């Protein structure tokens, strides 16, 4: 791919054809990623080291932590961010290959429909991620986790484990749910903006 295509692709990703899309990019790229990258590491970075069970043995702690966290929240949210970016990136790659200018996207029905479809996909992916987050992490992190250690052939099948910084993790969970909801609202608003521009209610940029 030539440098012109790469430049057009990067400009399209950073400067979508709608005002709300540009705000979404700013919110998604700065606030959400900064929150996850910086604060997420601070909250979850040493969780496995401080996760302790009774009896406090390495094999029990490791077994119960893997049971408690089938997937770490940082990995899940990082995958969510990458996957949600795919539809928009695919559209802007198509636009770059076809040499479509950003200001022309909303002028033609096919391009506008294609772009709107990518926004719909973002909404669906965010909704699926929201549901998966509920299934994996719930809405609250309890201070005590009851672990089933029967597979380790211990005397007791259930043991108590202490979850470090459970209140901070609960707050972080709620924040990530909130970010997902905000992103979905922005996507819906972007579809509304595209529709208004197509109908002539709003002037095209």
TrEMBL record:
TM segment ranges: 25-44, 75-97, 109-132, 171-192
A biological process from GO: cell-cell signaling
Keywords: Cell membrane, Disulfide bond, Membrane, Transmembrane, Transmembrane helix, Transport
Signal peptide location: none
UniProt similarity note: Belongs to the connexin family. Beta-type (group I) subfamily.
UniProt subunit comment: A connexon is composed of a hexamer of connexins.
Protein name per the record: Gap junction epsilon-1 protein
Native species: Todus mexicanus
Originating gene: Cx23
